[in-house]
Amino acid sequence: MTDKKLMDEFITSLRVEKGLSANTVEAYRRDLTKFLNLAGRLERSLMTIDRADLVNILEMLKRDEMSDVSIARFLSTLRGIYKYLLREGLTKVDPTAYFEARKAWQTLPKFLTPGDIENLLAVADMNTDAGIRDRAMLEVLYATGLRVSELVGLKMKDLDLETGLLTCFGKGSKQRMVPLGKSAIIHIQKYFPARYRLAGEKSSERLFIEKGGREMTRQKFWKLIKEYGAAAGIDYITPHMLRHSFATALLTNGADLRSVQMMLGHSDIGTTQIYTHVTDEHLKNKYKQFHPRS
User: Fold this and answer.
1) CATH fold group of domain 114-288
2) pLDDT tens column, 161-182
3) Residues with catalytic roles
């Protein structure tokens, strides 16, 4: 069986058996395609690669300036496919066994300061329908900590402005309810008339739409937030940084870890604990700044 065939069968198992989202499955496919290309340069395949070859491949990635987080994810993908091959009896050797990679949490997530957030939110032009929509999207993203795919996938029926809650579907189609907050609700209400004008004659069940009723895409929102970030004087920004900022703000102001885990939709609280490292750094910096004996 060819490497491509093995990869396709593994990808199918992720989608069918584990119910992973299309975006997550695509990330697995990208990592595996990169791995097979690099293995090919070493004249190796899934079945012939050994631990020394894997070291060479990881060194190639490092030379290409892949981040520690991305390398950790890449290695996690390889562990996944070899676990699958072992389970199916297609191999007896796992070159990733006992292989240590720098844990992803050792690189702390980047987040925006409250000042950055205020500057970012102030950039959207509230005299245009698109600007009103963009402000509402940014408000919702910061108020809820949604992933971008969750944000653009929101439907009108997912909103309950009376209770101040929205329903979203995360990884593996898991449903959760998240509080919206007053500011987000206000800007959603301002957006409704603009949405009607953007939709024109076309109806759409999606909450956030473009002109003509077209669905807002992840790619378009990435482009928008980078433009708004530059206009706000923020050197580097990604949509996920608002998710990080949401979690960091909650924990810094006393929220308990379990509640933050539920709002973020993390299946493992260990994933949420990364933000305690961020708030620890925040506390240490405040101590150094204000304590007379620091």
Assistant:
1) hpI Integrase; Chain A (1.10.443)
2) 999 999 998 877 789 999 999 9
3) 147, 171, 240, 243, 266, 275
